[in-house]
Design brief:
- It is a single chain.
- Helices cover 13% and strands 48% of the residues.
- It has a domain of 60 residues.
- Strands 1, 2, 3, 4, 5 and 6 form a six-stranded antiparallel sheet that branches.
- The protein contains one helix and six strands; from the N terminus they run E-E-E-E-E-H-E.
- The radius of gyration is 14 Å and the shape is globular.
Length: 94
């Protein structure tokens, strides 16, 4: 039997401006990044199976992906707003 992680919140097809690539490194774009492109991303906040939380994200084509670890679910929301400009009201529960 496989344990499943709980999804606390998710966002589907959220446009994000990014620069770089998975192989050499990528990040959310700044306004001054002339090589930035806009891609649709899937994001979710899950538990990590040990009482903490993960902010998991990937482009719709799965070319770009990443995750960050957080002590609390609130920390994950704060990270999403700081790093991607995603407000708390954009998230869908579960």
């Amino acid at each position: 039997m496989t344990d499943r992680l709980t999804i606390y919140a998710s966002i589907h097809a959220r446009p994000l401006r990014v620069t770089g690539d998975q192989r050499n490194g990528w990040r959310p774009a700044n306004i001054s990044d002339t090589d930035a492109r806009q891609l649709a991303f899937e994001l979710s906040i899950t538990d990590d199976g040990a009482g903490q939380f993960l902010l998991i994200y990937h482009s719709a084509d799965h070319w770009l992906s990443g995750d960050t670890w957080h002590e609390t679910v609130e920390d994950a929301y704060v990270s999403a707003e700081r790093d991607f400009g995603i407000s708390r009201k954009e998230w869908v529960n579960g």
